[in-house]
Design brief:
Number of strands: 23
Largest sheet: 14 strands, antiparallel, barrel
Strand content: 35-45%
Strand order of the largest sheet: 1-3-4-7-8-11-12-15-16-19-20-21-22-23
Distance between the termini: 50 Å
Helix content: 10-25%
Structural class: mainly beta
Number of helices: 8
Radius of gyration: 27 Å
Length: 545
Amino acid sequence: MSQHSPVLARRRAIAAAVACACAALALCPLAAQAALTENLTTSVVAMALGNAVTADPPGIASIHFNPAGLARLTGDGESIHNFVASIRTAASFTPGPNFDIGGWKDDPISNTRTGPVRQVMYVPGYGMPGWRLPAVAVPGIGMYWNKAGSPWTFATDSYMSQAMSLDRTTDPNDPGQYQGRQEQIQRLVYLSPSVGYKYSDTLRFGVSVPIAHAAFVVDTNMRFPNELLGVFGQLQKGWCPEDGGNIIDVLGFGVCGGGKDGMVSPFKKAANMRLELTAPFDPTINFGVLWEPKPWIALGAVYQGGSKTHYTGTYVFDTEPMLRNFVRGMNASLLGPIAGAVLGFPTSIPATQKGNMSAIIPFPSHLQVGIKLRPIRFAQLNVDASYARWSEWDALRFQFDQSVKLLEVARLYGIPDSSKLIIPRGYKSVVNLAYGLQLFPMEKLALRFGYEPRKTSVPNNKIDLLAPLPNTKLLSAGVSYKISKNMEVSVTGSYMTGKFDVPANTDCNLNCSNFLNIIYNPYAGQNVKGDIHVRYFGFEINKRF
């Protein structure tokens, strides 16, 4: 009986540890988590393990994943890392049952598919270089310092903590142009003063302050396939001669005064909008704890603080002749100016209107807990649970420095303030699990495998082509090899994929055709199916001085 007691004790300890981990997961507020773009481009080693590293934080990347892991580092060292990532997404459009937008049935987008997608990049201090890239490469470097015998370890690192990049500008007729010709959302941490403290041989704490440059760029063409707009366009077709001249109309409301170019259609391009915003200095804070009671088990937790990131930048609205000529014709008639004043219409719309703007866009806080089990020397299992407060993205609110004339037309749809643009999002927070497996066939070699079924924070009735992020599965594999006592090289490859299917009139961020759903449903009445594929390759060199 006594010879089996150590084995029995270990089994009981494993069971107790698993129970503790499950209890910790249960304490996570289930209504406040999600996965959008976090952790996709942060660490080469973490990516290989499906980002399940909270209880076994990887070297300098501990700054992000669990700063307590810094207290495991000794001496001085550096990490040089780089990743290359490509995002490919596509969508197809088919008209829904009884497709009809205010009497219009021949949408040129019907039965088409989006074209090629590439990546762009934002260079802090410079802006958008204008390059269209098959993938984006982002290098980084980190360093740490630990005096022999000291419980304190200090470190800093640079890395990309959030990224989403799309470019659909190759084909001017790409149907995806109405929800993002270009999109670049990135958060680049360029400095992260951090400290880890070794409280005891089994318990460590850490804190880091990532300081990031954030960029938010959206360039999109706009159209408004709305039933009310469609009905009005049909009225024009029945009332206005082809040449636009109608003496009765001149004495009335001037609906024909814009001529052929002023004829309203729900399927015409109405405008182009470009927003370019940055937040050059946006610090957050991370707290971590790591408990390793035995060599074969560890528990970890990290809280990554969020930020109400304050962006500033510029906007440009280029309005097509359709709305400009219509408003001009209406104001050239006898009764049109009176009707326009009642409806809050502008007296004119410039071809281009530009200026300065600001926005407060939350960077969600994030909580992650994990367990590490290494029952035998040759194998280790990591399991993590995480949540991020993407529910804070209920809507994106932009403040312009003046009234935007194009938006004044939208007063008819219940949008009272044309110096603001509110884009509904309606994202939610959900719990996610991640799994990592490490094998150690020899002392110098580690093989890593990761699996992360990422539940999306974008419900199916809120998804769109700006955020084509359905439920996805992330599969990863990597290898590390110790070249010498003081140098290790790691390489990782991963692939993430997911699909979405949005029936017509079910998603008012995408395809509703109701009278008042004008911002923003460019694919009203269309069934939209799509997918996303993310490929990642990264390498890292860790060197101890």
